[in-house]
Amino acid sequence: MKFYRLLRLMTKEKKYICLAILFGFLAAISSIGLLGAGGYLISQAALEPPLYTLTLTIIAVRFFGLLRAGSRYGERYMSHKATFRILGRLRAYVYDLLEPVTPQIFSKYRSGDLLARMVSDVDRLQFFFLKVVYPPVVMVIVFLLTGIFLIRFSLLLTVVLWLGFFFVAIAVPMILSMVQKRMKPVLREKNGALSNEVSELFYGFTDLKTNLQLSKKNEATEYESAELINAQEREHIVQLKGETIAKGISFMVALGVLFLGVMLVNAGEVNGVMLALLVLVSLTVFETATPMVELPGHIEESHEAERRVFSVSDQDLKPIVEKGEIGVASSRFPQSITFQNVSFAYPGNERSSLKGISFRVNPGEKVAIVGPSGSGKTTVLQLLLQFYYGYSGEINIGNHDIKLMNEESTRELFSVVMQENYFFQDTVKKNLLLAKPNGTEAELKRVLEAVSLQKLPLETMVNGMEISGGERQRLAIARMLLKDAPIVLLDELTTGIDSITEQEIFSVLWPHVRGKSVIYITHRLRDLHLMDKIIVIDKGRILEQGTYKELMKKQHGYFRRLKQLEQELV
Ligand SMILES: Nc1ncnc2c1ncn2[C@@H]1O[C@H](COP(=O)(O)OP(=O)(O)OP(=O)(O)O)[C@@H](O)[C@H]1O
């Protein structure tokens, strides 16, 4: 159902929603009361009665004036409070939906695009309550009550008012929405064409310039821009026409009420001093109805945003199993890791990236996984870190199947350096503290020294230009050293680092990980004699595994051939 999830979230903010509607209603009614009482006062004053007879009306005008100011403030305050609380809930809800399927999402969408889209769509949904839900509720209540008030004078007045309501709040917005719906595809097309031109201009700037095509591209971009502006103008004119018609109808209603009022006064059914009150009341009540012209647009926009926000999580991206609750008894001791006949294909991929992989890392053992690019090495870590669940076979840490283990406490077991490591736009210090929130400055400096970054001040901004790719990689290693978890996962950790620094890092790293279980992924074959076991993997299958000596003894072994090839190259 449309807006089902949004409405469910909204019900959690009942209190503020009810208060917003109450204050909105009071604000509208007091506006009507103020103008009505004002009109009545002027009419009465024109008859020059003794001043004391006007006292009550003057008090009423003052009362409505004050009530209007107070309730307007209350309405703004409560409606925004409700809106922001709903928005907060919505953000948390969307985050909870996406968090378990994040790896699947990022393998499907470009992460930057998706995040930007998500953030803007969620933000757009904040207007759902403010512009879609609550104004019509207030409007209907106000029109109902005003209609009932007018029945006191004549049923005809009420009929005219409700007829006006039908046209202004229902018929005109519906017709307008139908016309705009027909214009939307053109707008979308022009929008897409312009974004296309702009991104080609932006990303292909150097090529366009060197091939002398820049001015041609500029012209094309300007043409698309003018086309889009024209289409937007046309849509805006239609919108303005709708608003003008709605306002025109509300004036016609006021005129109709005036006309009827005069007839009623002539017939002696209504006192003449009430005439101004009737006209002003019927005019003011439409203040709540004329904004309805924009309602279909807001509904459409919210619906589109809602569809996009939830479409990502509604796809077949759900984790295949529910996570278990088994906590890890102690994260201090090294743990064994076992893969038993594990096969896995990434969501949407027909080809399996792992095919019946079995191996064991004993507690405290150091195991290298080597193999050519694309052979499935990183995938082993992705499964171990529980970024994906849809594999067959079993993965165990200690005696527990990881599918049954509590996700967060399991991750405490790992210190990880992946091929690409994310750093927050913050200082070196803050980025390091992520791994150990209570780490002291001395500890931070010690790990920086370990990766030969002692000259890097802790307050340097990581995403600033001062840090090179190799330094970022070393920083990731420093972060890993700081976490001090019992299982260490290293994926191509010295990519982008020169051989001398690499040697320095390894001389710190191996002593540091002594006693820990280590999986070290690499396609470089140096230092592998330090490993307890080497697993050679190609096209998702294990080709051979054993100690360095065992593999080097195999006459036609894959590893031996690789090693020989590397030595020849060196
Ligand atoms: N997110 C993903 N979505 C779909 N397919 C993927 C994804 N990540 C990897 N693959 C595919 O899985 C296979 C194994 O990839 P993996 O990254 O595990 O290889 P690798 O041995 O670590 O390679 P490299 O040394 O280049 O990092 C490759 O064919 C790759 O195309």
From TrEMBL:
Membrane topology recorded in Swiss-Prot or TrEMBL: Multi-pass membrane protein
Sequence ranges assigned to domain ABC transporter in this UniProt record: 337-564
SUPFAM superfamilies, per database record: ABC transporter transmembrane region, P-loop containing nucleoside triphosphate hydrolases
Highest taxon of source: Bacteria
UniProt xrefs under Gene3D superfamilies: ABC transporter type 1, transmembrane domain, P-loop containing nucleotide triphosphate hydrolases
Domain ABC transmembrane type-1: 19-304
Compartmental location: Cell membrane
Coiled-coil regions listed: none
Swiss-Prot/TrEMBL keywords: ATP-binding, Membrane, Nucleotide-binding, Transmembrane, Transmembrane helix
Location, primary (coarse class): membrane
Pfam families for this protein: ABC_membrane, ABC_tran
Listed transmembrane segments: 16-43, 49-69, 132-153, 159-179, 249-267
NCBIfam families documented for this protein: CydC
PANTHER family with a match to the protein in the record: ATP-BINDING CASSETTE SUB-FAMILY B MEMBER 10, MITOCHONDRIAL, ATP-DEPENDENT PERMEASE MDL1, MITOCHONDRIAL
UniProt-recorded name of the protein: Thiol reductant ABC exporter subunit CydC
Recorded name of the encoding gene: cydC
